[in-house]
Structures
1.
Amino acid sequence: MDIEIQEYAASHRDLAWSFREAEDSEQLLESYIDLGRVWVARVDGEIVGHLQAVVRNADTWEVTNTAVAERVRGRGVGRALLEGAVAEARATGATRVILATATADVGNLRFYQRCGFRMTHVVQDAFATYRGYPPGIEVDGIPMLDQVWFERIL
Ligand SMILES: CC(C)(COP(=O)(O)OP(=O)(O)OC[C@H]1O[C@@H](n2cnc3c(N)ncnc32)[C@H](O)[C@@H]1OP(=O)(O)O)[C@@H](O)C(=O)NCCC(=O)NCCS
């Protein structure tokens, strides 16, 4: 499968359908969707995934949202998007890429560690209802409550 990664020049909101694959809070999504830079992955010309990254300080980029269409998951698209962002971050002189995910999503924990990220800390109750998350979300039977942060030193 040929995967092409390109920066997305149009409005990030055109990709809201893909952002929503990785964000259950409409309130939070609204607060960050327009920020930073976005890259898309295309297969046969069709967008099958995206990654958004925001510069946090001179050293650090944060991957704020990334998702791959369900039908092509497990075929290297997520890794290609992450490696593309890491290469861009390095090219601008950044020394660290950070990101967060739900501790409940054990598949994501494997994904990020297979892509060279290491855990730094856990934020309990990050997915609380006051931040716009619907109550009672579970991932594979695990309540989605806590968030784990990862970093990759470049
Ligand atoms: C997480 C996500 C972006 C991964 O994208 P992907 O294209 O499926 O990932 P890749 O095929 O590049 O996988 C890279 C490695 O991670 C592993 N991996 C990816 N998803 C995995 C999962 N759910 N469970 C276990 N391993 C997984 C792959 O097996 C592969 O490992 P390998 O090197 O041993 O073969 C995708 O599953 C997704 O869009 N999920 C829904 C949205 C989401 O959760 N986004 C992240 C929010 S923080």
2.
Amino acid sequence: MQARQDSALPQFPTRGRTMRPANTSLLPVEAYTSPHWFEREQQELFAQTWQFVGMREEWSQAGHYACVDVGRAPLVIVADADGTLRAFHNICRHRGTQLLSGSGQLDSGIRCPYHSWLYSLSGVLQGLPQPDLFPDIQKTQLGLLPAAVETWKGMVFVHTDPQAVPLASWFAGLEERLSPHKPQELREAAVHRYIIRANWKVFVENYLDGYHLRYLHRHSASEYDHGRQDGRFVGLHWTFYQPLSAHGQQKAPAWNAYVPRIPDYPEHVSGAFAPMLFPNIGILATEHFWTTVHVQPVAPDHTLIELRTRLVPDVVGAKEVRTVYNAFAQSQDKPQAGRFDEGAAAQPESLLHSEDIMLEDIHVCQMTQRAMRSPAFGVGAYAKYYEDALPQYQRHILSYVPVRKEAQVAA
Ligand code: FES
Ligand SMILES: [Fe+2]
């Protein structure tokens, strides 16, 4: 077969120049689509900020460890012999192999699989085979490199830099704008994961958007009074609360019968808290539950959303949370049976009609991401007050990952 001549190829108009509309977004489209920007975020944002890794109770036993990647840095968080939490760069000091993966239980130390160097649970190099082959090394100089680890409201955060600003300063002023929950006193009831086909910031921006609540979620979030929402930043972190609507107050007794209110939860803040701790850890909290929404970038257009829900302990003991919610949904004659089903996000056509807040959000995030591939994509305007958070959040991102000249040219 004869090769096609260039002249046989269809002639496209000059790409994008005339079509691309003005974009009110402070972040260029490439910030949501480009592998280059994604890589910069790993290094300039995630490796430079405190990152959520789990709840303190997960390290309740000496020797328990869990590995995470923060930016491109593999870290390991381990409970040492005294039960103190420690974080290290998960990299052997001999030839740099990653020491551990996943999570599990260590006996007394961390042994490198490559040449068997052994570190204590507190990171000290304890021994190595054939030490006579290393006549000049100082073992004290070759302990594991520390990272920072701290706990806040039962949540464990790590930072690649052992000299990072303390977590209390990072979250300064935030406490009084958060919900009154004591997550440490609740018990984890369910973990649900969704892989969505959208950039992680598309999901976060949707999370900050108070405008869509009464439209996209007109049924699924009708228990809340969107007109009385109160959202604002404290430093880099978003705080948000909306009270119960009249409809929500009416339904409250029925809800309470299925998922008891958290004991001592103050009546005057019944409703939904939905803060977003910069850059990527949301919390959803009501008088019934407390859920972390961990937004984890996987690729420029793929994100893992992990929801971990905590309830009062006796509920968890009595019934599985999925059963509790589904039973309630069915009793209300709402088609919410799939609410907590994993994998539902794989069926895009079902999302919009799911009557499930999470699935509805996933649907619009995925559709926005799809549209971003077009040269006609642009953000025309942001709603006053209800969408003010979006450009402000973008500014926060830009303070870590500034637009470079070459990106502007490419845009
Ligand atoms: S790389 Fe770890 S012992 Fe050699
Ligand atoms: Fe939403």
